[in-house]
Amino acid sequence: MTMIEKKPHILFLDRRSGVPLYCQIQERLLAQIQSGEFKPGQPLPSIQQIASSMGVSYMTVRQAMRALNDSGVLDTRQGIGTFVSGIKMERDFRQVLSFTEETCARGSKPSSKVLSFDIQSPTPKVQKALRLKDKDLVYNLCRVRYGDKVPMGIEYSSLPVQLFPGLIEDFNPEGSLYIELDRKYGVQLMVTDEVIEVGIATAEEARLLEIAPQSPVFLFTRISYIENGIPVEHAKSVYSGERYKIINRLMRTKH
Ligand code: GLP
Predict the structure, then answer these.
(1) Within this chain, do residues 57 and 165 fall inside the same structural domain, yes or no?
(2) What are phi and psi of 207, to 5 degrees?
(3) Are residues 155 and 239 in the same domain?
(4) Cα–Cα distance for residue pair 149/95, rounded to 1 Å
(5) Are residues 116 and 225 in the same domain?
(6) pLDDT 10s per residue in the chain (255 long)?
(7) Is residue 128 helix, strand or coil?
(8) What CATH number is associated with residue 96?
């Protein structure tokens, strides 16, 4: 029997958990792939079949599958179907993924603790990175990000106030920032310039990340842009070196 003929697994979603439905769908699909229920090379049930078996919309399943496609777990062939790619799950790709998407794609449940969310004048570095004028203000959002309740990193994001009016009133910063930017402002972050350095956790960072003082950490500085090249987010993050790894896929261009 092929996977297409097989009745899709009945999967219960927890609509009160605060975890986006598409994340829960990703988790369950990953679990089915990891358990061997869906095998490499075999087609998955159609988006429509999965959507009706879970009682969610077509778009929600499509969003769940998009992140699994992006991370190489699934391989969608136009007009043919979606297959389990057989690429090892540990293998990752340097995509512009939100913390929520990345954590879901690893099979973990994302959550956040908000340390601060306010409007301030940018630092000179942030002002330059976001190409702001004097007197332009930024939202500053600082959060500890967790995967399965384990602290992974601390993120300090700055976004221009003028591009996102009303963000501080409407956005629940425990949720996904990128989903909110897309939903409310139709903004998708397409390109990120990233600098990665290695550092030592300060006493406060070690406390928040629940690691030993002076443990090694990754320091990320990212500037993210929308399609037309306008910078919309400056983010500095401190990630635990013990819990986080960076895996790159590099390509050599043909001469
Ligand atoms: C990544 C980026 C951050 C960004 C975050 C948004 O972690 N490095 O710069 O703020 O994703 O994640 P979410 O949409 O889960 O809030």
Answers:
(1) no
(2) -65, -45
(3) yes
(4) 24
(5) yes
(6) 333 334 444 456 777 777 788 888 888 888 788 777 888 788 888 899 989 988 899 999 988 888 788 777 788 888 888 888 765 444 344 678 899 988 887 778 899 999 999 999 999 999 999 999 999 999 999 999 999 899 999 999 999 999 999 999 999 999 999 999 999 999 999 888 999 999 999 999 999 999 999 999 999 999 999 988 899 999 999 999 988 877 776 667 677
(7) helix
(8) 3.40.1410.10
Examine the domain organization and report whether 184 and 136 are in the same domain: yes
By residue range, what is the domain housing residue 230? 89-247
Centre of ligand 1 to C-alpha 134, Å, is 26
Query: Sign of the CA dihedral 134, 139, 142, 147?
Result: negative
Q: Could you tell me if the CB of 205 is within 6 A of ligand 1?
A: no
Q: Is 85 in the pocket of ligand 1 (CB under 6 A)?
A: no
Nearest CA owner, ligand 1 atom 11: 98
**With contact defined as beta carbons under 8 Å apart, do 38 and 15 qualify?**
no
CATH number for the domain including 31?
Answer: 1.10.10.10
Closest C-alpha to ligand 1, atom 10: 157
Domain identity same for 214 and 144:
yes
| Distance separating alpha carbons of residues 35 and 30, to the nearest angstrom | 8
Same domain, 79 and 111: no
86 CA to centre of ligand 1 in angstroms: 28
Q: Which of 111, 117, 138, 155 to mutate to test ligand 1, by most ligand atoms within 8 A of the CB atom?
A: 155
Distance of alpha carbon 124 from alpha carbon 161, whole angstroms: 16
Tell me the whole-structure pTM to 2 decimals.
0.70
Say if ligand 1 is within 6 A of residue 146 CB. no
Q: How many domains does the chain have?
A: 2
* Distance of CA 96 from the midpoint of ligand 1 (Å): 9
